[in-house]
Amino acid sequence: MYEVVYGLTCTPDCSGSRVVHRGGCAVVRLSIFWRLILTYVVIIAVMTAVNIYALLQIRTLAGLNTEVGSHHHPEIESAKRLLSSFYQQIQSEKKYVAVPAATFLEHFDAESKDFQLVLHGLLTQDTSEPEIQLVREVERIQQAHLALFHAQLAEGVGQRPESSAAYDERRDALAGKMASTLQQYIGLHEARIAVGVNESHASSVHAEAVTRQLVLVALMFGLGMAAVASYNILRPLRRLQSTIQEMGQGNFRATMDGQAPRELRELGDTVKWMGARLQQLDDIKSEFLAHVSHELRTPMASIQEGTHLLLDEIPGPLTQDQRTTLRIMSDSSRRLMYLISTILDLSKMESGMMEYRFAPTDLRRVADISVNKIRLLADAKQVRLLVEAPVERHWVRADSARIEQVLDNLLSNALKYSPEGAAVTLHMEPRRDEGLMFVDVTDCGPGIPTEEVPHIFERFYQGRTKTRHVSVGSGLGLALAKKVVEAHGGRIWVDSEVGKGTTVRFMLCLTKPGILA
Question: What is the pTM of this model?
Answer without folding.
Answer: 0.47
